[in-house]
Structures are given as structure tokens and as C-alpha cells.
Specification:
The chain contains 17 helices and 9 strands. It is of the alpha+beta class and 420 residues long. It starts with a strand and ends in an 11-residue tail after the last helix.
């Protein structure tokens, strides 16, 4: 049994603008798995895999040497404990270096990108932007053995059914002869190759674009991986030559209840409400767009379009979608985001998000549980409370909101075992 200790800074009493007086909480994560346990799990998994069409020869050769990876379990458990603001994420994802290397990659891969664009109808800049975010244009494809990672996560059980299904698909890939077990490497969670396909996505959408008889997303030549990514976006409804989003300027006194991912309206509708482009000019085009405020009322505003949803199928996080879309825009010689981010705010910690949900629940609003995830229910609850407190109802979870709720409600029971 392995114990992992994390120190988490939590501003339960400190003012929102500073963390100097932050509390420190200790989380003890117990990883009970070990190699013997994994070996026993693999033995039990064998009959299930064979029943799904995996040959005994493939299974035995591929999984004979799988290794329990405690660091993979640790990373899976830690995902929701820390977060970054979208502007911190964007600073790294769309850095000057990443833009420069992306433009170089566009030139180096121009011939294959010409063919990919013609075949799939997906803008090359979008494909290269995903390549840049997922593996730094192929420089960092991951060196974790995929079979060991997936077996470890399936055995661990937190999301066992999901990772067992992915492990079956990984075995199918080996059985088809597209690669070998020793070449099948990638990230800690089982994503593989230049553009980090999970095995199930590979099985559905990977293509043999160079015609060598194998769908090779792992090798040094990125052609198959880039084409597979274009196929993925095409299947998701990508519209060539159309924006993923456009930055807009909101008029004074704007009703923030009109913002949200399900608010799609014609461009003329938004123009009639007083929205302009980021420079103050009239909105262009006839797309339907939804208004999104990824950093709340204090940050940039965007109308998002169908291509936003296409990128979202690759990764649901708004920060990822904006990073891919904005990097693609910069690679196409677009300019930077005009409005400033609310950089005076820091990211809310795991416990602060739990506390916010707890206070929203006490105020009579349904957050869907205390899970630290700021999903649609929590955002709707935030809007309601913001309205009650006289704050812009933008649905954005922030430290000023949490502090306002502390001032309003005073001390509330702590939902964290062993908490204050």
C-alpha cells in the first residue's frame, strides 16, 4: 500500500485578493494497488477480453509484462484537486514560442497539409494547433507504456469500466498489426501519438494517409496522425473557413443572463442588442453564435460557433477549446485577444470550490452535489445567488463571489472530513 500526501492551500478565511493567510490542509491519498493485484486483475480480465474477440496469442503477448504504475493512479486522483485560470492556461498554450514553432510546422508539413485539407475539408491551422497543444508538434509524444497505464487504471477501479474498454481497443490495435506493444506509448491516461488519440478514438477515426498499410500515429512521420485529427474534426462537423469564435464587446448595462453555451442566436440578434466586434465595429457574417464569458464579466467576451463545438469533442474544457481555436487563429495571422483577463484573481482551490457549492446549497440552490466541478447546475446556482447579491449574474465561480457569500452567510458547516 502506498500513501501519497498533498498539501493544499485553501483560502477559507483570507481575503480573496491574497493568499497570505491561507489555511493548509493535508490530503492523504491511499493507493492500495500493487503488482500482485494487477497480475490477478489481468488474469481475471483475460476471459472478458477473449469473449470480445481478442485472441489468446495477442492477449498473452501484450499483457505478459504489464507493470503497475502508481504514479498514473496518483495523477488520476489529483485531477480535480488543483486548477488553473484560463488565462494562465492560455499564456502557456498560445505562447510566442508555440506560435513560432507552429508556423514553422505549417511550412515543413505544407505538402501533406495541402492533401489533408483537400481530403477532409478541415483548416490546416486547426489541425496543427491540436498537434501543438497535444505534443508540442511531435516533440513530446509521451513515454508511458499505454498497456500498463490502461491496465493500471482499469484495475484501480475509479473509472474501471472506461479504462477496461480502452484497454480492449488497444489490444484490437495490436491485433490488427498497426503497431507493436513496445511502440504503443503516450500519456499517463492512455492517449497516444502526435495528437494523443485514445484507443477507441483511434479505432473509429485513425486513417492510413501515407498508404503504407498501417495507421501509424506514433512514428516520426506525423502524416497519419495529422490526417486522423482532420478526420476527427470533420466527423465532428468542422466548417472550413469559418471561425471557432469571435471576440466581441458588450454594451453598457448588458444583461449577463443572456450569456451561456446554449444561447445561440443569429449575428443580427446580437448586433441589435448592441454587441460589436472587439474593435468596436459592426458584427460581420450570418453565423449563429452563443455568447460565452470564459472569465466572467471581468474578462473577454466571445460569440462561439459550430467549430467551437467541433473542437470541444476533442476535449470538453473551455480552456482547451479556446487555446486550440486561438492558436489556430494566430497561426493564420490573426491578432491577440483584445480585452484583458482579470489577472488580479487567482484560481480557486479544490476546497474553495467545494465550499462555494456548499454555500450555494445552503442558500437553497441545487449544484448537483459537492464535487468541486463547476458544471451547468453549479453555474445556474451561481447566477441565482449573484442576482440576490447584486452582482453581475455571469455564472463565473470566483473568489470575490465566495467572499461575498461568506460575508452574507457567516460560518457554515464544513463538508470536508477532518476540516475546520
Amino acid at each position: 500500500m502506498r500513501k501519497l500526501l498533498f498539501l493544499v492551500l485553501v483560502g477559507l478565511c483570507a481575503p480573496w485578493a491574497a493568499a497570505a493567510q491561507d489555511d493548509v490542509r493535508r490530503i492523504e491519498v491511499v493507493i492500495e494497488g500493487n503488482q500482485a493485484g494487477l497480475d490477478a486483475w489481468v488474469a481475471g480480465f483475460r476471459s472478458r477480453a477473449l469473449a470480445l474477440g481478442i485472441s489468446s496469442a495477442t492477449f498473452d503477448a501484450a499483457l505478459a509484462g504489464v507493470t503497475f504504475l502508481p504514479d498514473v493512479v496518483e495523477r488520476d486522483r489529483r485531477q480535480d484537486e488543483f486548477t488553473r485560470t484560463i488565462w494562465d492556461y492560455m499564456d502557456r498554450a498560445v505562447s510566442d514560442d508555440r506560435i513560432a514553432f507552429g508556423r514553422k510546422a505549417l511550412k515543413q508539413q505544407a505538402a501533406v497539409l495541402d492533401r489533408i485539407e483537400a481530403t477532409y475539408g478541415v483548416d490546416r491551422e486547426a489541425v496543427v494547433a491540436i498537434w501543438g497543444l497535444e505534443s508540442s508538434y511531435g516533440a513530446v509524444r509521451g513515454d508511458t507504456p499505454t498497456l500498463s497505464a490502461l491496465a493500471t487504471l482499469a484495475y484501480d477501479g475509479r473509472r474501471g469500466a472506461f479504462f477496461e474498454a480502452e484497454l480492449v481497443e488497444a489490444l484490437r490495435i495490436l491485433q490488427s498489426g498497426d503497431t507493436t506493444a513496445d511502440r504503443m506509448k503516450g500519456s499517463w491516461a492512455g492517449a497516444m501519438g502526435h495528437t494523443q488519440f485514445m484507443p477507441s478514438s483511434y479505432q473509429r477515426l485513425a486513417v492510413d494517409f501515407d498508404g503504407d498499410g498501417r495507421r501509424d500515429i506514433w512514428g516520426d512521420d506525423p502524416a497519419d496522425a495529422l490526417a486522423s485529427t482532420a478526420a476527427y474534426l470533420a466527423r465532428a462537423g468542422w466548417k472550413k473557413g469559418r471561425p471557432f469564435a469571435t471576440e466581441v464587446r458588450l454594451p453598457g448595462g448588458f444583461d449577463y443572463l443572456l450569456a451561456g453555451p446554449r444561447t445561440a442566436r443569429p449575428m443580427a440578434h446580437w448586433a441589435a442588442l448592441g454587441l460589436t466586434d472587439a474593435g468596436g465595429g459592426p458584427l460581420q457574417g450570418d453565423d449563429w453564435g452563443a455568447l460565452l464569458l470564459p472569465a466572467g464579466a471581468g474578462g473577454p467576451a466571445f460569440l462561439i460557433f459550430d467549430n467551437f463545438a467541433a473542437i470541444e469533442t476533442y476535449n470538453l474544457a473551455d480552456s482547451y477549446v479556446f487555446a486550440v481555436g486561438h492558436l489556430a487563429d494566430r497561426l493564420a495571422d490573426g491578432g491577440p485577444i483584445v480585452a484583458g483577463w482579470p489577472r488580479q484573481l487567482r484560481a480557486m482551490t479544490y476546497f474553495e470550490r467545494i465550499e462555494l457549492q456548499r454555500r450555494l446549497s445552503i442558500a437553497g440552490h441545487d449544484t448537483g452535489g459537492l464535487d468541486a466541478k463547476m458544471g451547468p447546475r453549479t453555474q445556474a446556482a451561481i447566477r441565482a445567488v449573484q442576482g440576490e447579491l447584486g452582482l453581475p449574474p455571469d455564472g463565473y465561480p470566483s473568489l470575490p463571489l465566495l467572499q461575498a457569500m461568506r460575508d452574507w452567510q457567516g460560518r457554515v458547516p464544513d463538508p470536508i472530513p477532518g476540516g475546520r
